[in-house]
Amino acid sequence: MRTNIVTKKVPGDWHPADIIAGLKKAGTNMSALSTANGLSRGALRNALYRRYPKAERIIAATIGVSPAVIWPSRYSK
């Protein structure tokens, strides 16, 4: 029997495709942004699915918003 694993998305958090599109609009992508910040190529991708404050700050700064705007569930009190 095969089960599908679905990543739970919290309402209010940006969809990963929207984050990737925001980076593309800024003229970059996850891999390039990762290596430009001294990280491995796939490091920033982890922030799409789990808490990773350093990566969240890098992504948000590149898009031009606060990390709390992209991931309100991670920054709400």
From TrEMBL:
UniProt domain Ner winged helix-turn-helix DNA-binding: residue ranges: 13-77
One MF annotation (Gene Ontology) recorded for this entry: DNA binding
Pfam families referenced in this protein's UniProt entry, alphabetically: HTH_35
Keywords: DNA-binding, Transcription, Transcription regulation
Protein family: Belongs to the ner transcriptional regulatory family.
Protein name, as recorded: DNA-binding protein Ner
